[in-house]
Amino acid sequence: MKFSEQWLREWVNPALSRAELAQQLTLAGLEVDAIHPAAAAFSGVVVGALLKVEPHPQATKLKVCAVNVGREQSVIIVTGAANARAGLRVPVALAGAVLADGRTIQPATLRGVESHGMLCSAQELGMGGVAPDVLSPATLGLPWPSEAQGLLELPPEAKPGDDVYSYLKLDDAIFELGLTPNRGDCLSIAGLAREVALLNRLKIQPPPTKAVFNLTGDRFEVEMQAPADCPRYLGRVIRGLRPRAKAPLWMQERLRRSGVRSVSAAVDVTNYVMLEWGQPMHAFDLARLYGRIVVRRAQQGEQLTLLDGKQVTLDAETLVIADGEKAQAIAGIMGGQEAAIGPESDAVFLECAFFNPALIARRARALGLHSDSSHRFERGVDPHLQRRVMERATALLLEIAGGEAGPVIEAVFAEHLPKHAPIKLRRERIERVLGAALEREQVTEILNGLEMDVNPQVDGWLVTPPAHRFDIGIEPDLIEELARIHGYARLPAQHPQASLTARAPSEGRVPLMRMHDLLVARGYQEVITYSFVSTALQRLLDPGHSPLELANPLSTDMSVMRSTLWCGLIQALIYNQNRQQNRLRFFESGVKFTRQGNEIVQEKVIAGMVTGAPCPPQWGIEGREADFYDLKGDVEALLGLTGSSFTFEAAPHPALHPGQSAEVRRNGETAGWIGALHPKVQRSLELKQRVFMFEMRLAALEQGRLAQFGDLSKFPSIRRDLAVVVEQRISAATVRECIMSACPALLQDIELFDVYKGKGIDSGKKSLALGLTLQDATRTLTDQDVNAIMEGIVKKLRDELGAGLRE
User: Fold this and answer.
1) 330 in helix, strand or coil?
2) Counting Cβ atoms within 10 Å, is residue 583 exposed (0-12), middle (13-18) or buried (19+)?
3) What is the H or E stretch that residue 719 is in?
4) Residue 142 pLDDT more than 50?
5) Cα-Cα-Cα-Cα dihedral of 142, 145, 149, 154, to 10°?
6) Phi, psi of 231 (to 5 degrees)
7) 96-to-76, 161, 549 alpha-carbon distances in Å
């Protein structure tokens, strides 16, 4: 959430600096993620009144303006702005002014006419826009008025010559809060003011809310067919609005500083009141509504075109706001196009309601929609706030766009409104949890400051939370509030007291941290990703498993549980490649989730991914991309920690390249997979480079072999090289095993140092060159001994594998 510091200080103004206010909010659990200036710094820009605007004699797209800037003489300025007209007040950068982008304005001659300054748009003053928090009507393709019309239009009462930076109160800061989902009560200036006032023992000063006198008897009836989903609904007809009326600049600025774009008077007022009080509203074009308003569940298969142009098919679980003919909005989430406010709208139906938070959360996620409205409704809004907000919005709209209001139509089903049950708060429990005893008066003061109903008891208090706090339901919630307001930093620091017994580590177990250290030493970086992934990515990387679907996913991109850690690694790869990072080596250890029958199996694995050059650029190393064997070397080092033997067997995997994938086995069981990402998957994900990946079961890697001492021979070793020709289907590992079985006692090592296929070797065969190291612990081997051993090895290779010596 974003908010303007100046706006907050109009409600409550503690004697704190900007940095101190940010620290106080953060320590109270409302973490300040960032603070941005309301606009980039500029100087020398004043208010100017356009006295005369004439066409440029030499250019059809330029205009010559006589501008009053508070001096005795008006100044001549040439502009190309389409909205320049006599009587308009705009920002004027005079000669010597410095704009937000650092440009210094100097007098210039444009097509033969001297120009002594520059008329400015919002963009040139560094006020071009602030990215919205979530989806709002302003993000649905509608332009910024300042950007669409050119010059920033100032109010008629702006005095020529006044400094624009001061006039627009741009010495302001935009606070960006990282609110946790439980603090929906702070998604407004009113909610934040409550917190700041309590923390500083101050009173808030909200803007006055006056009931609007009913000037007409205009009504639009409301029919409630789903009272459990919408227990309170208010509506009001307002006619006679000026169709193209704009919100005043002060309101546009507050919206901009809160991350919401200005659209039209009616839409701006509903957005403004939502930011002010936290209550979403919606305005329908009354001329496009038929009959009456009906709050009901959608018909199965009912169609609705939303404000963003997306057409959705609704089901019977979706609550809609309909007229006498069809659905016009998804309740609490987004309005439809057909009854949307347009440029010619002169009559509106204002809607203000309380919707069931759980229903809104389910439907927003099911439909893949997230709006300012749903963001607040699914966290819970005060169910008693609607009439106050309706009166506030009506007063603002009538003040801005004129018109006459009808009576408020209200439908209430009190039995379905949320109610807070009293919570027992024990004094001894507070001391036990916080490690500090708070005075009874202090506890009562804090709870009363949080607008809770406090009833003292002998051993504590009976506390009823206020209607706007949906996150308080049990005793620990109250204790958390006491700690938060009292101040975490003021709680005494105490070391836990417990009897600890150190366990001797098992020498036969390889700790996970040792695996991490090895991979980091080989140039990898650890990543930690979500266990929730998108269905599409899961299907690409592990189509053989049916993923576990979440009943209430955070978003459509996090709707299933991962059955492989490759999903998260690929997402990290894409994120980094989009930021021009081409040499990447990642690993992650965690849990993957698979379904076996009716059971959910959670298995710990470690996975890695490599792309780009195997080494950083270096003058002594030839540049190349990593290949299968680079990754295989890293995996072999990881397997080497166990001291056990593993085998790599060529095998297909749906996510890996058919000719560059292998199954890693230990004692005949699958320990993991290694290989290159399948070219089809690579193309689907639009990856620019080849990617190599591995995933290993931790159960196979954690079982190490205890080291055992063996006698060191004092006799010399003898090396003999052997070149054998075998069929291409026979792996070097198979040849190695055959040789070891022929002479297990004396054969100390086998080294494969060459593989050759080509001239001199029959088609379908290959030559393997191996170095054999022989050694006896009791004596020096003679040539006759070695020759006899080599003959036995050659015979065994010929008999079992059909191998022959290379000529």
Assistant:
1) strand
2) middle
3) strand 718-727
4) no
5) 180
6) -80, -15
7) 15, 15, 63
